[in-house]
Amino acid sequence: MAAPSTLGELKKSGYRQRGIKDELRENLMAALKSKKPVFAGIVGYEATVIPQVINAILSRHNIILLGLRGQAKTRILRALVDLLDEFVPVVKGSEINDDPFAPISKFGRETVAKLGDATPLEWLAREQRYNEKLATPDVSIADLIGDVDPIKAASRKLTFADEEVIHFGIIPRTNRGIFAINELPDLQPRIQVGLLNILEEKDIQIRGFPVRIPLDIMLCFSANPEDYTNRGSIITPLKDRIESQVLTHYPLSLDDARKITDQEAWISRPGHLKLTMPSFIRDAIEQIAFEARNSEFVDQASGVSARMTIAIYENVLSNAERRCLLTGQDSTTVRVVDLHAAVAAMSGKLELVYEGEQEGSQKVATNLIGAALRKTFERVFPGAYAGGKNPKQAKRNQPEKAAPKGDGVYKQVIDYFAVGRKLELADDLNEKDFAATLDQVPGLRELAQSHLKDARGGELTVGMEFVLEGLHQSSLLAKQDIDRGILYCDMLGALYDEGA
């Protein structure tokens, strides 16, 4: 059935006019009742952020999302579009999406008054009803709200007090929709003042002329707490008029972090190359962000964006892809050595404190990768320094017995290097040579197989490399960076070499 093209047809169709906040509220209620997914693709906020956003919409509130970088604030705001009607009717030719039942612009009012039921309509898609603006210091009132256009006044021989000489800004042009301002504290205080009437009185004022245009709009904002001190602030009257403030956060679990990265990263790459990602390497990539968010060298007020792990994942895959192209192989398994490619994806995404700057961004990034590998290693393999009270015995209140030392598990591997042997793992080794090199270490394959039950082929071989890296991060083996890769050797021997 064709959509009504005139106001008269719209009336006969039984169309019910609603304000934007009522529209969002009723559509949300219908989605919740029918168990339809709301805010699909937003991971890790199911029990924290999303319920607060839902409450704000049900309360017909304007919203500000407050959180550090990379916490999906803009993504949440853009997802509000899904709660709008698929199409809404507007007076054809209206600059500010006039509702044909209640036009607010001079053009809309005069058109409906003149043509009545013959007023022509056009239908606005939900995507056209969302606009956003990144707040920057150069944003003006004219950009957001509008200004008097002297050319219009001169060409039409109108006074500046006439409503028709107004050049509308982006907010009035979003009438009957959702308008979002990102990084609100960056907006100059005098510009923020211009938003007060829109939030409270629901109208706009242009310069000193008595123009009142009651907008039907939902305003949303995002802000980073760091910006309150470093770049600007949100004026108190504006904060008072934003009814709901919702705090966002980083993923609370490794599983949520993995889902976010898998969802956003460029993983499915065109071409015939097959890249296999071992689960323990995948976990280590996510663990890097968790380590960074607890590091004394990283400015925690700035946060560590989820974009960092996305970039790391993509760089690691690209390094494996590069190896395939250099060795002429059709497939490879991502290796521990590929994580060195992650440094380039990290350096620009970490804000360092003074001590971190002294260490250097590359060293801090390398240390974070190492800490993540060790934490992941200890989840999969026995800790290299396991000892103390056995947790199971403690739970049963049995007498204390020292847990077996981890280095006993790794004794055969450590002894191989203790007599001065070294193992070089070049970055461009093909799968066969990579496995043959690691198989030189007695007991290494069996050790990896005993803790990686499901690992086969290339994944098992990378598990062997992972054991060596875990022992290095536990200070039981030394590691040296070489031009084409890395070299593992005895810790004591490496100290002697440095002394010499």
What would you say this structure looks like, in words?
There is one protein chain. The protein folds into three domains: 7-247, P-loop containing nucleotide triphosphate hydrolases (Rossmann fold), CATH 3.40.50; 250-380, Magnesium chelatase subunit I, C-Terminal domain (Helicase, Ruva Protein, domain 3); 381-500, no CATH class. It is built from 24 helices and 14 strands. The protein has helices at 7-13, 20-33, 49-58, 73-79, 106-115, 141-144, 150-156, 189-193, 196-200, 227-230, 236-241, 254-264, 279-292, 306-327, 343-346, 354-359, 361-380, 391-395, 406-409, 411-418, 431-438, 444-451, 457-473, 491-499; strands at residues 63-66, 87-91, 121-125, 130-134, 146-148, 166-168, 177-182, 217-223, 244-247, 274-276, 331-333, 423-426, 477-482, 485-490. The strands form five sheets. A five-stranded parallel β-sheet has the order 4-7-8-1-9, with helices on one face. A three-stranded antiparallel β-sheet has the order 12-14-13. The chain has a two-stranded antiparallel ribbon with strand order 2-3. The termini are far apart.
